[in-house]
Amino acid sequence: MRDVCIVGGGTAGLAASIFTARAGLDTLVVDGGESILARNASLENYPGFPDGVDARRYLQLTREQARKAGAEFELGRVTRAEPIDEDDLEEGFVLEIEGGEPIETRRIIAASWSDSEYLVPLDVGRIQRGSKHFVDTDDAGRTAVDGVYAAGRLADEPHQAIVAAGHGAKVGLAVIHDSDANFYHDWVVPAGYFTGRGREVPPGCEEIDDEERRARDEQARTRLLEAFAEPLDEVPTMHPSVEDD
Ligand SMILES: Cc1cc2nc3c(=O)[nH]c(=O)nc-3n(C[C@H](O)[C@H](O)[C@H](O)COP(=O)(O)OP(=O)(O)OC[C@H]3O[C@@H](n4cnc5c(N)ncnc54)[C@H](O)[C@@H]3O)c2cc1C
């Protein structure tokens, strides 16, 4: 049984997975296709990239970060989600995957912009607007069903990458807080920041000394220089209704 299964490995789902995995929750991301962000031609409003960034590279690096944090990935489209025991949601949920084995999980984060059909058996509160469906949530992504959350555009957040990522992180934190994980904040701080004041390092935080800080900075710069050394071969995905020449 997984602690959390995230349906959708796009902008919101990946951000959520980084937080839940770093907090020690057994995290599986199931993704059935491509993030809508792969259609972008140049991502120029995501903070931290003064001249923009290739959206496909951003997705690649974020996936890598999630894997490094401990999240696992499975390719496949989720087709159905239902409680293991209708009378006791704490028993968790089972997800059916097209062409794959069912997955049992204590919690679900639906981050699958463009598809929420699989949530119908759970009655989470889907809202139809035009041809699109959204999932009704509270401020932290909790739906009407305990243990089921929604993140990103599916939760009716504005259609912007940084908002989807931030919301994914926020929903990941809600899952952490609702689980048994002992957690304060996910912070890495200089040695002495807490202990220098006679405090224990709170759960979820880490104190590192200057040597370790420099080593991590070196590793981070090396990886980014390598990642950005060459342009990507991949091109943006065109809208499906645009005809080829
Ligand atoms: C053409 C275009 C250009 C854009 N340009 C910008 C821009 O310049 N700046 C900006 O801020 N935003 C931009 N956006 C918006 C941005 O891409 C989205 O707001 C953001 O990606 C939403 O994140 P999300 O995680 O909610 O959805 P997504 O990133 O789309 O992730 C959803 C994931 O769920 C998966 N999925 C769906 N159904 C299932 C299922 N049943 N089972 C398993 N997996 C499933 C999908 O394969 C996908 O990977 C653009 C969008 C488009 C279409």
From TrEMBL:
Residues 3-35 form the FAD-dependent oxidoreductase 2 FAD-binding domain. It holds the Pfam family FAD_binding_2. Coiled coil: none annotated. The keyword Cytoplasm does not apply. Keywords: Flavoprotein, Oxidoreductase. It comes from the Archaea. One of its GO terms (molecular function) is oxidoreductase activity. InterPro entries: FAD-dep_OxRdtase_2_FAD-bd, FAD/NAD-bd_sf, Ferredoxin-NADP_redctase_2. The keyword Ligase does not apply. This is FAD binding domain-containing protein. It comes from Natrinema hispanicum.
